[in-house]
Amino acid sequence: MTKPVLLEEMAHPAVKALIDSGIDMVMLPVGAVEQHSLHLPLNVDFMLADAIARGASAQTGVPVLPAMPYGHSSNHVEFPGTFSLRPETFQRIVEELADWAYICGFRRLLFVNGNLPNQFPLQCAIANCVTKHRDFRLRTLNWWDIHADIREWFTTDESFGRCHGNVAETALMQHLRPDLVEIEKAYPMPGKGVRPFFHYPHALVSKDGHQGDPTQATPEMGARFFKLAVDTLSDQVRRALHEPLPTW
Hints:
CATH class: Alpha Beta
Low-confidence stretches: none
Radius of gyration: 18 Å
Helix content: 25-40%
Number of domains: 1
Number of strands: 3
Order of helices and strands: HEHHEHEHHH
Number of helices: 7
Strand content: 5-15%
Structural class: mainly alpha
């Protein structure tokens, strides 16, 4: 395929036909509307998750739901532009969306996540969903965990143990939406290798909201790792679509 399968663009008979054909899996990108320092926009987290999910959909035919932009971002409260849900609110929303995916006939649901704190309420939602629906298979996957090389790249320029608005997010945005990147405003943050024992609000570990060194980012770097993310996720989705139940 050359285009992603976008569920919102389909009529309901087409959704049923898709499921009846054996594609009983759907992807839901989730992210956040939150600050990403001086050089990046608020949409980074949900935009990256959505772009990677759409790329995998184009290769596999597995449909994608509209990205959920709002997530759990309360750690960024001191920076204007952040709009956060409480973790319990976020969990309830994704649980209810998962219930509706099940009602529609989907039996496999992948959350493609672009915001680190989302993973905890997502995992709690999954626990509740599989209790209600024993034949429902769910997974949450952070885009930076899709491939070991992406994970290493994503964490290479952390500061105070965090990666945010860093080289990886900046390079991917340079590749996907260069018009939204103001790289001239980027600068390296101190704190590499420093890992506080306690968790602190983001404003206490970053002057302007980012971690790492986004000045090292390039569009070419972003293009290379975006392709790796899409190709690897596509392979994983193809296998997941036909994965049998474990036996012993």
